[in-house]
Amino acid sequence: MDLIYITNDISAATIAQDAGVNRIMVDLEILDKKDRQGHLNTVISNHSLKDIGCIRSILDTSQLLVRINPINKNTEEEIEEVIKQGADIIMLPMFKSKQEVVHFLELVGGRVTTCLLLETPEAVLEIDNILALKGIDEIHIGLNDLHLSTNLTFMFELLSNGTVEQLSKKIIDADVKFGFGGVARLGNENLDASLILSEHLRLNSNMVILSRDFKEKGVDMIAEIRKIRKYLDTPKNNKALMNNQHLAYKKINDIVNNIKAKSGKSR
Questions:
Q1: In what order do the strands lie in the sheet with 207-210?
Q2: What is the pLDDT of residues 109-165, one digit of tens each?
Q3: Beta partners for residue 116, in sequence order
Q4: CB 90 within 8 A of CB 79
Q5: Given its phi and psi angles, is residue 221 left (phi above 0), alpha (psi -120 to 50 degrees) or beta?
C-alpha cells in the first residue's frame, strides 16, 4: 500500500522517505478551500510551486505527488509548471463533471501519472461515465470534502453507509488504482487506525494519506511507519476482516451519535 505524506518541508520529507513513505505530496490546492473547511479543525496547506522543485531535489525512492487546484483559468499553466518542476503524479481535486476530467487528462497528456481526488457528490453520480475515460491512472476518495458536501456528521460515515465500498468496486473493476481517506497513528485516535487499515485491506485499497498527527512533536516517524507496515503485512482472513468491519462501523456510529447528542441533534 502506498503511504502518502503531505509536506513542503525538506527535512520532514527526508525523514518520511527514510521511514519508507511511498509518496510525498506538495499541496497547492487553495481555491475555495477555506470556504469549505475553514470552520473545521483541518489543515489548509500554504505550499507553493517553488516547493515542488525543492522537494524533488531530495527524493530518490519516494515519488512526488502534487495536488493542484480545481479546474480554473490557470490550470494549464499550473500543470505545465508542476510537470516542469518534476512531479511524478498530479492529483486533481474537487472535479464535478466528466468534462473537467477530460480537460485535465488532455492537459496532462500522459506525461505523468494522473490521480483524481473524488470528493464531490456530482462526481459520485457521474462515476460510471468518468471511469469510461482512458488515461485515468488512480482515484483517491476524499472523505473530508465528500462528507461535508453530502451533509454527513463524520467523514468515516462514508465507510459505514457503504459509499466507499460501492465506489471501490466500480473503480477496481475499471482497472484503476484505488485509495481513500487518511489514517492516523496506530492506537492514537478514538477510532483506532487498525480498524481503518483493515477496511483498506478488505476493500483492496492501495493508497492512504498519513494524517497530521504524524507531524506532532516527538513522533518517531520510522517507528510509526514500521507499525503500520507490520499491521498491513500480517495475514488476515476474511472472517477477521469482517469482524473488524463490524467493530469499525459500530465505533463510527457511536461517534456520530455522540457528535449529534453534543450538538443537540436527534439520532
A1: 177-180, 138-141, 113-118, 89-92, 63-67, 23-27, 2-6, 207-210, 182-183
A2: 999 999 999 999 999 999 999 999 999 999 999 999 999 999 999 999 999 999 999
A3: 92, 139
A4: yes
A5: alpha
User: Cell 520529507 belongs to which residue?
Assistant: 13
101 neighbors 136 (Cβ within 8 angstroms): yes
Bridge partners, residue 81, by sequence:
none
Q: Are 28 and 49 a contacting pair, CB within 8 Å? A: yes
Closest to 4 (Cα-Cα) out of 23, 17, 18: 23
Confidence tier at 39 by pLDDT (50, 70, 90) = very low
Dihedral, CA atoms, 43, 249, 157, 184, nearest 10 degrees?
10
Whole-angstrom CA distances from 180 to 171, 208, 216 are 12, 6, 22
Q: Quick one: pLDDT at residue 33?
A: 65
Are the beta carbons of 91 and 119 closer than 8 angstroms?
Answer: no
Check: CB of residue 61 under 8 Å from CB of residue 102: no
- Whether the CB-CB separation of 67 and 108 falls below 8 Å is answered with no
CATH class belonging to 2-263: alpha beta
- The residues spanned by each domain of the chain are 2-263
Gap between the Cα atoms of 105 and 215, Å rounded: 33
CA distance 164 to 172: 12
